[in-house]
Amino acid sequence: MSSQTERTFIAVKPDGVQRGLTSQILSRFEKRGYKLVAIKLIKADDKLLEQHYAEHVGKPFFPKMVSFMKSGPILATVWEGKDVVKQGRTILGATNPLASAPGTIRGDFGIDLGRNVCHGSDSVESAEREINLWFKKEELIDWESNQAKWIYE
Ligand code: IDP
Ligand code: MG
What we know:
Helix content is 39%, strand content 16%. It has helices at 14-18, 22-32, 46-52, 62-69, 84-92, 105-109, 124-134, 148-151, and strands at 7-12, 35-42, 74-80, 118-120. The radius of gyration is 15 Å and the shape is globular.
């Protein structure tokens, strides 16, 4: 059971929200069988983005990336389920959409690296850190899915 409580942070970036892709992205995680435990539309500020992308601070692309991430609302979500961090990255596709397989979100909806539609945590540790950055404890909802017995054996 505990393997089913792994969580990941998935965000639809401003390009994905502007292009009306949010419902399709949510749908891919829902249909796979993952459980939504938090969701909100948010306009990120410099502080949040510098913490979120701490590993990229100082890189040449960083200022442009931050201004893009501040250019509109982001749909922030948390999903729960077995192996959801790794599977979430697979559902998103490769960082560069041109290297992403068709069938992935970036492979289906993106072309340029700086407009790759979505974000997903890259490890269980990053997921925990990012979830705590983007959400307050009380925004994470514990609930039992009636579908669980049809998804897990
Ligand atoms: P990830 O989003 O797949 O985890 P990261 O390497 O963590 O990829 O990079 C964070 C985001 O920064 C990417 O999703 C992409 O939008 C942007 N990015 C990464 N490298 C570059 C670059 O060289 N030029 C422009 N944007 C970049
Ligand atoms: Mg990353």
